[in-house]
Amino acid sequence: MSTLQQLLLIAVGSALVNNVVLSQFLGLCPFLGVSKNTKTAGGMGMAVIFVITIASLVTGAIYKFFLAPWDLTYLQTIVFILVIAALVQLVEMFLKKFSPALYRALGVYLPLITTNCAVLGVALTNVQKGYATQASFGLLTCVVNGAATAVGFTIAIVIMAGIRERIEHNDISPSFQGMPIVLVTAGLMAMAFFGFSGLI
Amino acid sequence: MKAYMERIYNGLIKENPTFVLFLGICPTLAVTTSALNGVGMGLSTMAVLVMSNLLISLLRKVIPSQVRMPAYITIIASFVTIVHLLLEAYVPSLYESLGLYIPLIVVNCIILGRAEAYASSHSVGLSLFDGIGMGLGFTVALTCIGAVRELLGAGTVLGFTVPVYEPATIFILAPGAFFVLAALAAVMNRVQHGNGRTSTTDSCLEGCEHCTNMGCGGRVFTRAAVSETEEADVPAGGAEEIEKPAAAEEKEGQE
User: Fold this and answer.
1) Across the interface, do A28 and B26 touch by the CB < 8 Å criterion?
2) Which residue has better confidence, A192 or A34?
3) Cβ–Cβ gap B221/A89 under 8 Å
4) A37: buried, middle or exposed (CB in 10 Å: 19+, 13-18, 0-12)?
5) Residues 196 through 225 of chain B touching chain A, CB cutoff 8 Å
6) What is this model's ipTM?
7) Chain A neighbours among B 101-160 (CB < 8 Å)?
8) CB neighbourhood size of B116 (10 A)
9) In whole angstroms, how large is the CA radius of gyration of chain A?
10) Among A169, B2, B38, B246, which lies 20 to 30 A Cα-Cα from A125?
11) B239 with B129, same domain?
């Protein structure tokens, strides 16, 4: 199998089949909290794509060039969470200085991402599945997997926001108003996403 | 002694992290495919919570407040690593079934939340019991949810098959997790507000970012100032564009 095919398979797998929110339950807080309208959901999605892609590159590189050669892999959790937190701050400062337009679009969402478990989850998955230590194209695989996971998150949160905009105008029984109906919606979406499992 | 017992009651019932505060939803949904997994995850989280509460409370006068969040995260991550390695060595079957979610205990809102809200300002003994109480509350909640899903989805109770019942597999798959939690949230709505409207606004379900009383989301890394200004529903409208620079300045001032 050529590298390109392999990357494509990983991308489809992470974005649709094993959707990060609906089948792995990572990043549920923003998924439930910031999905009230499609515009903010889209903004959050873009910020997550941005951060996860950079974070998987950086954590992958750190694992491959520092932790693995020096037998320090047991430190991965500590190193990754600190690196991610520092990275988010760095990205925020960098955007503020060099790209005010992008900062205005993504800025408010960046601080919210630090403790998004999807970011740490992707970094750890990259290591667990051996993408980071792969001999050829290891880092590229990490980045592709990260970006695809984040795209999966964006798809899920935007669809959810669209449905919630419609739910606003519906008559829902009092006990189910608020979170319960959103969780039922998420459950139905998760069922729908099972349909993708035939893709691979 | 009474104060210590009160902490345990508080964690188990009054402020139960899952049933009342709706914190730590990710592990709650992900690992509760069976009661045993729920117990395992609950106890692992409890171990980390107790140890981190203890150490943070011991060090509360030593850690400068500007760098407290990175310090807390480092402490928590160290204990998570210890628990991770211990599970891998002594309970490999549980380690296999919990997988990725063990290292992810680091980003569990409950732990950082208790560190920030309780351990950083209370005595060692009280913080220890607070950790035990909250940990027990979380364990009980995960076990209950796990038991319900296991019964409905696999037709077993702690591994023993229930006769006659035909299991509905969907409940141990991803959608079942959402449905069970939805039912639970609906019951909580009913209990808390009678027939009135729901108000889960100060809980994590409105987004970890918004829960100002806990240490999760926006608060990490000296963001106390930011989260206070962002309290007024961050992504709702144009307000954040005006408030953000002010908050950012405050933050830089702090640093």
Assistant:
1) yes
2) A192
3) yes
4) middle
5) 196-200, 204-210, 216-218, 220-221, 223
6) 0.85
7) 103-104, 106-107, 109, 112
8) 21
9) 18
10) B38
11) no
Residues B230 and B167 in one domain: no
Full domain range(s) for residue B231 = 202-254
Record: contact A187-B220, CB cut-off 8 A: no
Q: What is the pTM of this model?
A: 0.80
Residue A4, in any domain of the structure: no
In angstroms, rounded to a whole number, what is the distance separating the alpha carbons of residues A45 and A48?
5
- Regarding whether B137 and B98 lie in a shared domain, the answer is yes
Residues from chain B contacting residue A188 (CB–CB below 8 Å): 175
% chain A with pLDDT above 70: 97
* Contact (CB<8Å) B103/A109: no
Task: Please tell me the total count of domains within chain B.
Answer: 2
pLDDT for the residue numbered B213? 36
In a domain, A180, yes or no: yes
* B207 contacts A178 by C-beta, under 8 angstroms: no
Query: B17 and B112, same structural domain?
Result: yes
Q: Which residues on chain A are in Cβ contact (under 8 Å) with B204? A: 29, 33
Q: What is the sign, positive or negative, of the torsion defined by CA atoms of A111, A114, A115, A117?
A: positive
Q: Average pLDDT, stretch A67-87?
A: 88
* Residue B109 and residue B208 in one domain: no
Q: Is A199 within a domain?
A: no
Give the pLDDT confidence score for residue A1 in this predicted structure: 67
To the nearest whole Å, the CA of B84 is away from the closest chain A CA by 9
End residue of a domain, out of B148, B175, B193: B193
